[in-house]
Amino acid sequence: MNEAVEQACRGGLLTTASLMVAGPAAADAVRRARALPQLRVGLHLVVIEGPAAGPAPGLLDADGQFPSDQLRLGIDYFFCRGARRALAVEIREQFAAFAATGLRLDHANAHKHMHLHPTVGRLMLEAGAAHGLPAVRIPAEPPATMRACGAAQHLSDHLLYAGTRVLRAQARRAGVRTNDHAFGIAWSGHMTADRVIRLATRLPPRVSEIYFHPATDRDARLTRLMPGYEHEAELAALLDPAVRQAFMRAGAVQTSYDAL
Predict the structure, then answer these.
(1) Residue 111: what pLDDT?
(2) Displacement of CA 151 from its chain's centroid (Å)
(3) Which of 30, 131, 206, 235 is in Cβ range 3.0-4.6 Å of 214 for a Cys bridge?
(4) Among 69, 137, 141, residue whose Cα is nearest residue 107
(5) How many domains does one find in the chain?
């Protein structure tokens, strides 16, 4: 995935990436990012299905990872005082680990969009304030746009879209910038060139973030964590001149969080 980010930044449309600071290839990601001054890098906060930066007492499973049970974690993060204390410490640890890389903090988001949880969102913004957090991703994918693009729509898509209002309000109160729309959710792992070109002709007004999960190849870990994802096809889309031309024809202009 790190190699794909570098390729897509050097020769494609990619301008921004998010870093899992405790990920097994984090040091390699930081090394590559330092050699790509044009790449903006943010924190990909992990409080589910992944490694912690600190001890995170009471939050990790037997393998030392955040578990994958989103409902159980959501209940604990909201109702359990001990879990909230440990979560607050862990979130501060991840921001501190990002700061230690020396990279400029461009934005923050969260694995599995867990910052939509009101407790996680609040703690992320509070911890981020100490590090000058300028922006957060709002994973608000307009159902009407995706329907026009031919994507199947489910009740969960509408509920997710409605649920972004809380995070947007939290960010506004914190004085943190946000995007208006995000794409890459309904087609997560399947942002192929033909689909992205279709989306380019239907982008709504204002600021959209379009995100991908590119990789140059798949290994057992990627296959286990993201079964069925078309990582290589997503990298190909980012490198495809036809995709760039589709955005140009649509009048879309690349921007960044710091330009908002």
Answers:
(1) 97
(2) 21
(3) 235
(4) 137
(5) 1
